[in-house]
Design goal:
Number of helices: 2
CATH architecture of the domain at 357-512: Sandwich
Strand content: over 45%
Shape: elongated
Oligomer: single chain
Distance between the termini: 81 Å
Helix content: under 10%
């Protein structure tokens, strides 16, 4: 007969006098904090971040007021990021520097507490049937947190909560390496007791950010209103209240170090199996096999969207302020914000009405093969064209007017663009504008090709074909003028509604 049930409905621990007598100094929280988030190094700038697996990192800087005792001491900084890289931590303001530092990221929980007490004494409290009397006795934990709770008492070995009674475990002490919050501990030494202001800086993984752009095309078809947002995301279990927040655009040449320890946390659910067993003498009974491991659920990310955030005394929405940082760009939020645990936050990057915007369709052509035709928006990142600011890459949503409303017509991505650069936003593959290429003839090394572009829309469209050829090949067009850009020959034309345009060209392969 097998019996499966959740065990140990309540877990308690009591600090022993020896634990209370430990000489440690605890800094419960920072007096102020700043969080600067770097984009995931291996994610393309025009790609959206994966909220289930954030691979960026943050530079966290905290200011803390700490009472330093005379002599050797251990200082515990509680509430640091759970994904902290201990080797990156820099602490300034200590009288004699740091002798040793450790990340105590295994958090206090029923599961971690039980695991730490293996082979150590606990108190078993049992609620008796009938009037509900309580009986307590000493025991020793003889199993890990996976499987059954096997205890050794004065009468022998038993499985907790499997004998018809409800058992609770009381712990006489808390293991010193368990904390209610992620904690960085350091060892230091001072010749005299004093109060100091410390600066703690460190890198932590589990963060990321991106820009999001919304483009609303105007009825004239030649301008658009552009709104940009900075979206900051954290998968860390620690929140940073009233933080000075910033995001860093550009790629830092940094080799990723092994990730910090992940807090175990979680509830304690044990199983017991009762079956006939052969007698075992002079040995501890082996625990039953652990249950089949189940995949952990994906992290649920709470979304915090600040769509109209305004600073006190300010009439306009808060927008991030751009600053130079060497070859990088830093975007600083001008007011304190809370970087919440497992959440997103959005702050306006820019609002630019009346941006000059050319809408067209682009075909990629290789020889006599058309790869695809995609919608595209093009502008210049200049003040005279309505922009003139550094544009960090990110997803783009494009809307067009339809009667009295705006409808989504395409989605794409924008790569990082500096001031003065061309801005090209590739959208979805086109369905109403198509192109195909036909090989007319081939003579020796020369092939003659006809490229046909068709417009099934009810309005004229701008069309552009980018023809790529192998190095050394020659291309000649019949009755059309081509330009060359980025190593490709460009054919640009306007196709009236419901009509088509053709280009005949010859390609001569290089001599072998």
């Amino acid at each position: 007969m097998a019996l499966r049930r959740a065990l140990l409905p309540a877990l308690f621990f009591v600090l022993s006098p020896s634990a209370l007598a430990e000489t440690v100094v605890t800094s419960a929280a920072p007096a102020s904090v700043s969080v600067s988030v770097y984009r995931a190094p291996d994610r393309a700038s025009d790609r959206a971040m994966d909220l289930d697996w954030l691979e960026g990192y943050a530079l966290v800087t905290e200011r803390r007021e700490v009472e330093i005792p005379a002599g050797k001491a251990t200082i515990r900084f509680e509430g640091v990021a759970a994904g902290l890289f201990p080797e990156s931590a820099i602490i300034t303001g200590l009288p004699s520097g740091v002798r040793e530092k450790n990340l105590d990221a295994d958090l206090l929980s029923p599961r971690s507490l039980y695991a730490r007490m293996f082979g150590r004494p606990v108190i078993v409290r049992r609620t008796l049937p009938g009037r509900g009397g309580v009986r307590e006795e000493r025991a020793i934990i003889r199993s890990g947190p996976d499987g059954a709770a096997i205890l050794q008492t004065a009468t022998g070995f038993e499985v907790a909560s499997c004998g018809g009674l409800s058992d609770e475990l009381l712990y006489s002490e808390r293991p010193v390496d368990l904390s209610a919050r992620p904690t960085l501990s350091i060892e230091t030494e001072s010749v005299a007791a004093q109060r100091v202001t410390l600066s703690l800086s460190y890198l932590a993984w589990g963060f990321d950010w991106q820009s999001n752009y919304v483009v609303q095309m105007n009825p004239d078809g030649r301008t658009a209103d552009l709104a940009a947002w900075v979206t900051l995301a954290s998968s860390d279990s620690t929140s940073f209240a009233n933080a000075d927040a910033a995001v860093i655009a550009g790629k830092v040449n940094r080799e990723d170090a092994p990730r910090g320890a992940v807090p175990t946390g979680g509830d304690l659910v044990l199983e017991c199996g009762l079956q006939q067993m052969a007698p075992v003498y002079d040995a501890v009974p082996a625990p039953p096999p652990p249950p089949v491991a189940m995949a952990a659920p994906m992290m649920e990310m709470a979304e915090v969207v600040v769509t109209g955030m305004r600073a006190k005394g300010m009439d306009a929405p808060v927008t991030v302020q751009q600053e130079g940082l060497g070859d990088l760009k830093l975007y600083r939020v001008p007011v304190p914000v809370t970087v919440s645990a497992r959440a997103q936050k959005q702050v306006a990057l820019a609002e630019k009405p009346g941006v000059k915007m050319e809408a067209l369709y682009r075909a990629e052509v290789w020889g006599d093969q058309v790869q695809s035709v995609r919608q595209m928006l093009r502008t210049r990142n200049r003040r005279e064209d309505g922009l003139g600011l550094a544009l960090p890459g990110g997803p783009v949503a494009v809307f067009e007017p339809f009667g009295q409303t705006m409808l989504l017509v395409g989605e794409g991505g924008l790569e990082d663009r500096a001031v003065g650069e061309d801005v090209e936003i590739l959208l979805d593959e086109a369905t109403q504008v198509t192109a195909d290429a036909t090989l007319l003839n081939r003579q020796g090394r020369t092939a003659t090709i006809r490229l046909t572009a068709r417009n099934a829309r009810q309005v004229p469209v701008r069309f552009e074909a980018r023809i790529e050829r192998q190095p050394g090949a020659a291309l000649r067009a019949q009755g059309a003028r081509l330009t060359r850009k980025d190593g490709r020959d460009i054919w640009a034309t306007t196709i009236p509604a419901g009509e088509e345009r053709t280009l005949v060209y010859s390609l001569t392969d290089p001599a072998q």
